[in-house]
Write a structure and sequence with these properties.
By secondary structure, the chain is α+β, with helices and mostly antiparallel strands. The protein is built from three helices and 14 strands. The longest helix is centred in the first third of the chain and has 14 residues.
Length: about 210
């Protein structure tokens, strides 16, 4: 039998020109895209940059469990000079993530507060905006969350949802065809291999990698 020779020596520069010219003909550099729900975009690749649709947080948020206070009301507090704050007027109880309402501008951790008869007793002054998350601390509206051509993992998916993004433009998933060659290859599961026969495991490995 005549043996087929598929390899021929081509100068590198010429080979690259042929290669990229063929990719251009196939539209490789103009990949088709599609818009899909963010919930379904895990492991997909962004086609364009994605920007936040809202700030996160979008309000002044407590970063601790405790009480929201006006920092000026706590200015004189110390261990030797405790300050009593009246419930509803000089403080409100907040949990982590709760909004910090006007006119309060600071949060004191619950561990640093003693409650007694409708008052909160504190022994340390609070700095303005302590334990308060400002608007946009994580994301500012229209901030870029992801650039184009970025693989979307679990953390990226959560960031998109957090930024109010519900649909994302991604590269269409490619179709992969694996064509094993060689007369010595036999399908997986073939029993009683003859001398010279090899189980086609590479196709399955490549499919899994793809």
């Amino acid at each position: 039998m005549k043996r087929n020779i598929y390899i021929q020596n081509t100068p590198l520069k010429e080979a690259l020109q042929i290669y990229f010219s063929r990719l251009e003909q196939l539209g490789f550099f103009h990949l088709p895209t599609e818009e899909i729900p963010v919930e379904n975009c895990l492991h997909r690749v962004t086609a364009t940059a994605v920007h936040a649709q809202r700030s996160v947080p979008h309000y002044l948020a407590s970063a601790m469990d405790g009480i929201a206070v006006s920092s000026t009301d706590t200015r004189e507090a110390s261990e030797t000079n405790p300050v009593l704050l009246m419930a509803g007027q000089q403080y409100v109880e907040v949990d982590t993530g709760d909004p910090v309402p006007d006119p309060f501008d600071a949060v004191i951790m619950i561990e640093d507060v003693n409650f007694t008869d409708g008052y909160a007793k504190i022994i340390k002054s609070a700095a303005p905006w302590q334990h308060v998350r400002p608007v946009g601390e994580d994301l500012v509206s229209q901030d870029m969350i992801l650039p184009s051509m970025t693989r979307i993992g679990p953390y990226e998916l959560a960031a998109l949802l957090n930024g109010g993004v519900t649909m994302v433009n991604v590269i269409k998933a490619p179709k992969v065809v694996i064509i094993p060659t060689g007369t010595e290859l036999v399908p997986v599961g073939t029993q009683c291999l003859e001398a010279g026969q090899i189980t086609d495991t590479n196709s399955h490995m490549l499919a899994a990698l793809a």
